[in-house]
Specification:
The chain has 109 residues and is mostly helical. The protein has one domain. It is built from 4 helices and 2 strands; from the N terminus they run αβααβα. Strands 1-2 form a two-stranded antiparallel ribbon.
């Protein structure tokens, strides 16, 4: 069980790093409150950047003002839709997760 938590925390750090390239936390309590209000599943072991990703996965196509949910989009990414940002984060996270898996399980010492 401890190994599973270690992997969960490591993946959470990867996701958090990716989301930070796209978003800034404005109101961490609002992010968490919104997740609860809309009954969106998220891991309590992950930080607010991971929670932002959970919000995007659940509603990027219907959100228009991320500030109403407790976060903003970084200036360099403002030209993208929230749906596109969600897809880019998802793709980057998948690629890094695969690379992490291959490094951990197939990397010869």
């Amino acid at each position: 069980m401890a190994e599973k938590l270690v992997i969960e925390l490591r993946l959470g750090r990867l996701l958090s790093t990716i989301v930070q390239n796209y978003c800034t936390i404005e109101d961490p309590d609002l992010i968490t409150e919104t997740l609860h209000a809309y009954a969106i599943r998220f891991s309590m072991h992950r930080d607010h950047y991971c929670q932002i990703f959970a919000l995007l996965k659940a509603g990027a196509s219907t959100m228009t003002t991320p500030e109403n949910f407790g976060f903003s989009i970084n200036p360099s990414k403002k030209d993208r839709s929230l749906k596109a940002i969600c897809e880019e984060i998802d793709e980057a996270f998948y690629a890094l997760s695969v690379a992490h898996y291959e490094h951990c399980f197939f990397h010869s010492s």
